[in-house]
Amino acid sequence: SLDVSMDYSIGVMPITVAALMTPKWLLRHLELPPQATILVLPGYLADTRDQIDSAIPIEVIYGPKDLRQLPEIFGKNVCREDVLGRFDIRIIAEINHAPRLSMEDIIDRANRLRKDGADMIDIGCDPSIRWTQVGDAVARLVDLGFRVSIDTFDTWEAEQACIHGASLVLSVNSSNRNAACDWGCEVVVIPDVPGEHEIFFSTIDFLSSKRVPMRLDPIIEPIGMGFAESLLRYSQVRNLFPDAEMMMGIGNLTELTDVDSAGINFLLLAICQELSIRSILTTQVINWAKSSVKECDLARRLVHYSVTHQTPPKRLDGSLVMLRDPKLRPYSQASLESLAAGLRDNNYRLFAQDGKIHLLSAGIHLTGTDPFELFGQLLKLPQSDNVDASHAFYLGFEMAKAMTALTLDKQYEQDQALCWGHLTRREEHHRLERKSRHRHPKGDR
After folding, report:
1. What is the rounded CA–CA span in Å between residue 217 and residue 171?
2. pLDDT in tens, 115-124
3. Measured between alpha carbons, how far is 216 from 201 in angstroms, rounded to an integer?
4. Among residues 345, 354, 371, which one has the least CA distance to residue 443?
């Protein structure tokens, strides 16, 4: 039931498949109550709003494609734009082994990283060989509007990068701190050996006395090599240097852990937000971390909203919920049985819940866990004489999605893409007219 503080009426259209409604058909059958001020239409019609809005004399809202989601549009959910609109952590995205790449490849990667949310492009040099073209590469990126950092301990490479427009050098310790005074550039200060504070603090004091702008990075260690202790060092450094800029290089976790990167990125960004660590360095070399920059971009926005509003980051935005869905909306068994008993057309409806795929049509309600067996059951029925090659392909495609949804406890909605958070690839909905039994109709809820 829908509990809303307004009067409403429900218009029942003479059609059993909502997805088959066209603007022309809707306008021919729609009867607006004279007191109506807002019309809510199924989400399937949103792509044709230009044909509808001009013909309706009142405000039109395009709701969800699934009726069970209708209460959400009348709820008090936080606006997604409010949640994702602000952040204060900057993302430095590294292009690894840049000297091995062509200039065109470097520019292409930089463009993709910036599109995903990177604020600065880090040029990762090769410690085994001096890159004589480093200045040209930095200058080219700067000319294209990129903010650039250079990742090298080679003082000549760092100097050339700064001369040609780099604005940050990664990294400086006692071995190259004297040279850093002449670069005229901000630097990231790291310890000579993670966990040994004396020389780290000495480098900080030295650069401070020379008025070299800096960010402090105590270095996060991989799991199994002192991760927890290294994490505590960030809190200790923040307490000792409350006004200092800090950076966290998070690749030691995402690249060196056999876990999908999104959750790790989110937790590390949350730590950075609470400790006022305003920049992170990430990379996306290994396959399970291929979308780290985008994940960090979403995570920094979520944690900023959460910390600023002192609220847990739950039910704010599902972009990082990728493997499983935030919420499932199963039908009751009674609802499915009632739907199956009331169908009078030959359109096939598919549902995936309770560990089974359900296939419904007029006089048909088949269930099973194996799409091949389910399709075999269908072909044995006399009503299945409308299953031609294209229809068989369609049902196979949809049942494969349904099987994936059952495997991962995801919500399956026929004719719609499974939700993979920010990785979701939109599927075009091909609206079809009602056909005879021997043609290819698509079903929906």
Report:
1. 9
2. 999 999 999 9
3. 10
4. 345
